C-alpha cells in the first residue's frame, strides 16, 4: 500500500452508538499534560480561595482528603495529585471547574486530532455519539465546546465520567449502555487503552483501539484481540458489499444516469 493510499475501512455495521475515550483518542495526551495540568496548578490556589465556600468545591475537596481545613492545604494536595496524574474523582471535578474559567475566557482551547471533527459530524447524523472519560463531565463539555476546531459539542449526545464507575470495570460499560438505552452489542467503544478495551469487550461492546502520535505502545497481543486503527477515517458503519448490491439492483437507467454524472 502506498503512503498516500487510505487504509481500508473497518465496518461496524451493527453499531448504533459510538462511545469515545478522550485523552489519547480524541485529544492528545500532551494537551492534558502540557497545557491543562499546568493551567490547573497555576490557577488552582486563587480558584480555591475564591470558591472555598462553594458546596460543589467543598464536596470535591472532601473527596481529595477528608480532613483538609483550608484552601492552602487543598491547593497543595491538588497540585501534588495533578502532577502525579492521579485519577481521584474529587481532583477531576476541581480540575474541570478550574479549566472551565480558562475555556470561557479563551485562555484555553481544547485539542482534537485532525480526523475528529469530520468523524463526529458524520457519525452523529445517524448515530448517538457519547464520551466516557476519567475527566469530569464538566471538563468534557468545556473541551468539546471550545476546541481549536470550534464547538463540537452539538455532535455529542451524552457524557460519562468516573461517577459511572471505573473505566477498567466491565460493569461500568454495562451502565453506559443502559444509560444510552441500547444493547452493549450495538455500541462501539474507541479508546487507546487495552485495559479499558478488555472491560468494554467483556460487557459485550465492540472495541477499536486507536494508536495516536505520542501514545504509549499498545501491548503486543492487542492486534490479535482488538481492531486497531490510527485514524477515525478507518471506521465505517456501512457494509460496502451491501452498498454494491443495492447499486447493482438499481434500474439500468438510474445506473446509467449516475455514470454520466460522474464522467
TrEMBL record:
InterPro entries in the cross-refs: Enolase-ppase_E1, HAD-like_sf, HAD-SF_hydro_IA, HAD_sf
Stretches the record annotates as Disordered: 240-263
Coiled coil segments of this chain: none
GO process terms (BP): L-methionine salvage from methylthioadenosine
Protein's UniProt keywords contain Membrane: no
SUPFAM superfamilies the record matches: HAD-like
Pfam families attached to this UniProt entry: Hydrolase
Domain of life: Eukaryota
GO function terms (MF aspect): acireductone synthase activity; magnesium ion binding
Gene3D superfamilies the UniProt entry points to: 1.10.720.60, HAD superfamily/HAD-like
Keywords of the record: Amino-acid biosynthesis, Hydrolase, Methionine biosynthesis
Protein's UniProt name: Enolase-phosphatase E1
Organism of derivation: Acanthoscelides obtectus
Lineage: Eukaryota, Metazoa, Ecdysozoa, Arthropoda, Hexapoda
